[in-house]
Amino acid sequence: MSSGFSLRERAAMMAVRGANWASRAAHRGAGTVAGGQIGLKIAPDLLASLAVGRTVVLVSGTNGKTTTTALIAAGWGGDVASNTTGANMPAGHVAALVRDRTGRVVLETDEAWLGDVMTATQPKVVVLLNLSRDQLDRANEVRRIAERWRAAIAALGSATIVVANANDPLVVYAACDAPNVRWCDVPTPWRADAQSCPRCTLAIDYDVAGWRCACGFAKPTDLTTSLDGPLRVAGQTLELALGVPGVFNEANAAMALSALREVGSDLQDALQRVNAVSTVAGRFSVRTWRGRRVRLLLAKNPAGFEALLWTLGPGDDDVWIAINAHLADGHDPSWLYDVAFETLRGRTVWCLGERRLDLATRLAYADVSVKVVDDLEQLPVSEEPVTLFANYTAFSEWLERSTPC
Amino acid sequence: MAREVDTVLTIASLLPDLLGTYGDAGNALVLASRARARGISIELLEMRRDDELPEASLYFMGGGEDGPQRLACEVLRASSLGARVRDGANVFAVCAGLQILGQHFSVEGDDEFTGLGLVDIATRRGTTRSVGDICVQVGDHLLVGFENHGGVTTLGEGVRALGDVRNGRGNDGVVDGFRAGTMWATYAHGPVLAQNPWLADELLATVLGEDVEPLSSVADLLYEERCRVLSPHSSFEVRRKDPH
To answer: Which tens digit of pLDDT belongs to each residue from B122-155?
Structure first.
C-alpha cells in the first residue's frame, strides 16, 4: 500500500473514520456517505490518492450494479474493499476505501459519475452492464449517459480493460472505442431505449443473431463471453448454479466472472464462490414480517421490474408492491406505464408506499385487481408467503421493517 | 348505457418506438380503457417506424430523446399525418410530440429543425431543463403531471394555450401546451391522462362528438391527491366527478 498521503489527506481520512464511527455509534447506518463527503471536502483528490497502488474494478449500468459488484467481491475471494451499502458516488467510494485498506477494490458506480470515478481511480477493469430508462428526472436522457461514457472511455489508457455487454447498443456505442474491450454476449431483453441507432439515429434491426444498423454499427462479433447455453468465458466452460434468481442474474454473473478473469482469478474457483451468493444487500432474500414469509425484491425501473416479474412463479404467492417517489427513487412515477403489469392479471395486488394511488391506477388500467393499503394494519393476516416488489426507498423501509427468516 | 354497440373508435399511437420515453404509452391505454367502460369498442393501433400511417380518429404522440425526436419528425413528415389532421383527425401530443407539431424546434445545442408545421408554434432550447411536477389551470379544472424537457415554446398569434401554469414551467413558465383545431398538446409527459381522468373524458367526448357518462375509478383518488399536493394553497376547488 502507498503511504504517500499528504497531511491534508491523512486529516481527511481521520475525519472519514470519525464520521463513520459516530454514525455507527448512533445506529444511523454505516455512515458511508456523510463520512466520505467530509473527507472529500477536506481533500478533494482523496479518492485518487486512496486508489493509488490498488487493483480497482468499477461496475456501472442501469440494472445489476449492486449484485454484480457483490458477485465480483465474493468471487475474488478473501478481503475485498467494496461499497456494499449501495452508496455509489464518490463519497461512498471514499468511505469504502478508508474503511478497508486491502489492495483489491470493487466499486459499484453511479452511471452519471462513472467518468469522474474512472479518472480518479484508474481502474484495472470497468464493467458496463446495460443502459435503460431510469430516474429520468435526474438523468434526463439515457443517451446522454451513453455519450458521457463514450467520452470518458475514449480517454482511457490501454491499462484499463472494459468488460461490456455486446447486446446493448447503447453500451456498445459507449465502449467500442476503448483501447481494450471484452465483449459479453449476455441476455438483454429490454430494447425500448435502443430502437434508434445511437450513432446515426436510423432504425436498429434486431434478430436472433444480434442487432445492426444500416450505418454499419452492429453487435460486436469478437465475443469473449457467451451465455447462449452454458457460460463460456475466454474458452472456458463454467457451470452456473447461482443462488440468486433470474436470467438477469445469470447475465450479471457472466459479466462478473469475465471481470474476474481480467484481474487474474482462477475462474473455476471464482465460480464456486459466485454460485454460493444467495442474497445481495437484502435483495432476493426471504424475510419475516408479522409471521409472514416475505420475498423482498428491489424493482426500481421498467427493465428491472419486468425481469423480476418473470421470476414470479404461477404459484399463489400474494403480490404486494410498494412505490415511493423520493429523490433516490426519482420523483416521477410515470415509468410504471412502461412495465408490462398485464402479466399480473388474475391476481390481486396490494398497493403500498407513498405513490400507491399512482400504482393502483396503473394496475387498474392493466385490468389487475387492486387493494390500496393506506395503513399496514389493512394487510391480511395469513401464513401464506408473499412476494414484495419495492422501489428504492420503499425497499429500504421494508428491509428495516422485516427480520431475517 | 344506451350506446349502440357498433360504435368503433380507432386510436393510433404514433411511433411508440421513438416517442415513448417515459410511460407515454399510458395515454392510449387509459383512453381505450375509459371508452370501453362506456361500451365503446376501441381499435388500438400502433404506427412503428416502417409502417404506413393508419387511419384513425385520434393519434397519440409521446415524448422522446433528441435523436429519436428528429427521426420521428422525418418519418411523420413523409406520412399522411398532415392531410389526416386537415381532414379532422384528432391529435393528443406530449413533450417532444408537442414540439414536432410546430414550425421548428431546436435539439442538441442550437441546431434548428423544421417541424411538421401543423400549428404555428416554435420551440427553442431553454437555458435550463424544466424538470418537475407541473400543475396547469385548464378552464375550471387543474391538470396535474410531470414535465422533463429542455424546450421553451412560443405560441404564434391566434394559437390558444391549453392552460395557465400554476406550478412548474410548461411552454415558458406562463402557459402550457396548446389547443389548435383538433390538436391538443401539453408538456405534462407520460401518462397525463391517467392522472387527469377529466382530461381523458374531455378528449374522448370531443373525439366522439358527444358527452360521455361519468365513470368513477381509483384514478379519481389519484387526481384528488395530486391536486392537493401540487396546488395546496389554491382556492380552486377540486371537482369530483358528480353523476348529477
So the answer is: 999 988 889 999 999 999 999 999 999 999 999 9
Cell (9 digits) for B98: 408537442
Minimal Cβ distance to B22: which of A136, A196, A358: A136
Phi, psi (deg, nearest 5) at residue A3: -115, 20
The residue ranges of DSSP E strands in A119-274, in sequence order, are 125-128, 161-165, 181-185, 204-207, 210-213, 223-226, 231-233, 236-238
Please report the residues numbered 99 through 138 in chain B whose beta carbons come closer than 8 angstroms to any beta carbon of chain A.
129, 131-133
| Interface size, chain A vs chain B, as Cβ–Cβ contacts under 8 Å | 101
Using CA atoms, how far apart are residues A387 and A43, in angstroms rounded to an integer? 45
Residue of A141, A201, A336 lying closest to B23 (CB–CB): A336
Options 3.40.50.300, 3.40.50.920, 3.40.50.880, 3.30.950.10; CATH of B8-230: 3.40.50.880
Residues sharing a CB contact under 8 Å with residue B4, sequence separation 6 or more, in sequence order: none
CA distance B34 to A369: 16
- Full-model pTM: 0.85
The CATH number assigned to the domain with range A286-404 reads: 3.90.190
Flag if B217 and A364 touch (Cβ within 8 Å). Answer: yes
Binary contact (A136, B67; C-beta < 8 A): no
Task: Give CB contacts under 8 A, 24+ apart, made by A144-151.
Answer: A145/A111, A145/A112, A145/A170, A146/A170, A146/A171, A146/A173, A146/A174, A146/A198, A147/A174, A148/A112, A148/A114, A148/A115, A149/A60, A149/A111, A149/A114, A149/A115, A149/A174, A149/A175, A150/A174, A150/A175, A150/A177, A151/A115
Chain A residues whose beta carbon lies within 8 Å of the beta carbon of residue B73: none
What CA–CA distance (Å, rounded) separates B142 from B224? 10
Q: What is the pLDDT of residues A122-173, one digit of tens each?
A: 999 999 999 998 877 666 678 889 999 999 999 988 999 999 999 999 999 9
pLDDT attached to residue A76: 97
The architecture in CATH of the region A44-275 reads: 3-Layer(aba) Sandwich (3.40)
Per the CB < 8 A criterion, the answer to whether A66 and A281 are in contact is yes
